[in-house]
Design goal:
single chain; 8 strands; Rossmann fold; about 230 residues; alpha/beta
Length: about 230
Amino acid sequence: MEKIQLSIPKLPYAVEEAMNRLRVNVKFCGKNTKRILITSSVPNEGKSMVSVQLWKMLSESGFKTVLVDCDLRKSTLKNRHDFADEKINSIGHYLSGQCEYSDVVYETNVENGYIVPCTTSLENPISLIEDERFKELLDKLSDDYRYVLIDTPPLCAVADSSLVASLCDGAILVVRAGSTSKKLVKESMNQLNYVGCNLLGTILNRVETKTHTYNKYYGKYKEYGEYKEN
């Protein structure tokens, strides 16, 4: 298995503790919760940062975890975490039949952490997500890894996330404080319910408080109590 080096910034202590609390709650969701969708209602709410940090913490806690970059239209992971796309097989290559399962899963510099990267943008990936090959990918990953975290586009932007959600055991919804309307959040929650994906919890991101200076960039995470144990 080939290896990808990811550059992951260190979190401020308080934010790291909040993410660690999220990790613990995911752990108590039960053994049947393996495929976890991480999404938002609209762009720029912080879902990809949450995806990477949760993946890192679960992996470093001893759980064999794979992060699937399923934002096929506009992935930000490869640019934010400084891994080059030269000679890297993308999930798009796998879904279009250009490579096999063993070619698209990469080991990383995070212990127990693996990734299925997305290095090429697709204008209309719906047909690939609806193809049986995508379901087969998730089935194989579920067999090989304790957790499969799937970073997807915003729910209210395109239909991709709803299709992926229908194949997941649960979802984490990231909401940016003071930016996302209650109407859009409710619409996202209803959409998850409609496709049969259990909402494990919500993360309220970028809450401005006078007592926590780290909120200016990373935000304050709360409502972990909404996580349910299966």
